[in-house]
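Quick check before the chapter quiz. The format below is the same one you will see on the exam, so make sure you can read both the input and the output lines.
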Amino acid sequence: MRWYINDMSLQGQFADIPAFEGILRGLIGVRVRVERLSRDLRSTRTLADRFVSTGVTIRDAMRASRDSDLRRAVLNWVDRTGPYVEDDRLAETDDYFEYASLDITDSGLGEATRRIKAGDRAQTFSFEGGTVRFAISPLAVDHGLLEARLGVYNVENVWTVNELANSAIAEGPPITSWRTLVDAARPRFPHLVIPDSVYRNAALAREPFEATIRDRALDLFGHLNAYMAGRGPDGAEGPAAREMIEKFFVGDRALFTGESETNQKDFKADLTFPDPDDPDRVIFAHWHGKISRRFFRLHFEWPVPADTKKLKIVYLGPKITKG
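Here is the expected output.
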């Protein structure tokens, strides 16, 4: 799950600045108490410039605040440490999104929508009040220009700090290592086999852990899990499975592809892995999911045999076929 501050919900609606300070105090506190939110609650780099009240931005309000601890914590968060939407914003060809006729493309709500469109899980935190009502869930976001709509995406939304905390706590403990990534992924994606060999592999073990790679790996796991969930008992692809193929396995920018014939030949030994379920068998797994950050790859058995109920993950780590 990814969490985003919906900066568009700040519409200058807080005549009572101390009341707004109370909300900020709650957000700072929950980021301290719930580690997932400290790492995964994202805002835009322009959040500090959103209007809290008429002519008063977050930055203005904090500079005028008598609470020096709050001022220091908020400005450090919004101006220095993030994390920020812009640091790993998802690419989108038709990059225009609206909510209630507002252009929210470059906002936290916009990024949450892009993530959901791509099959990820995302949620927003909104501020109550204002001309446009954001204290509802889900938020129905339109994709594309008014004259050429491309779709509507529902974004799960909360508007109290307690709801935000409960959402993050329900996700379980933070994932801060390759091993805990595997441990957390297994129950979350029951249609996949993710063996210990994934995190024990020396190629991954010597790589420093990074949250961006963790998030992309979880996204790829989710797409593969959805594909397997959409197959019938005989391996036949139902509508949900075919949708995963069309969205993620097809096209010039497909997330999942096979290696070229040349790479399959030149790197055959490197692309051959032990079968997690049968020590006497190996799997030639040249199909992989792409993680652009540090050129990581996720290799898996493909095509999936008709009688197989779970797709086997065999490798996560740096790109194997580097020339």
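If your answer matched, good. The radius of gyration is 22 Å.
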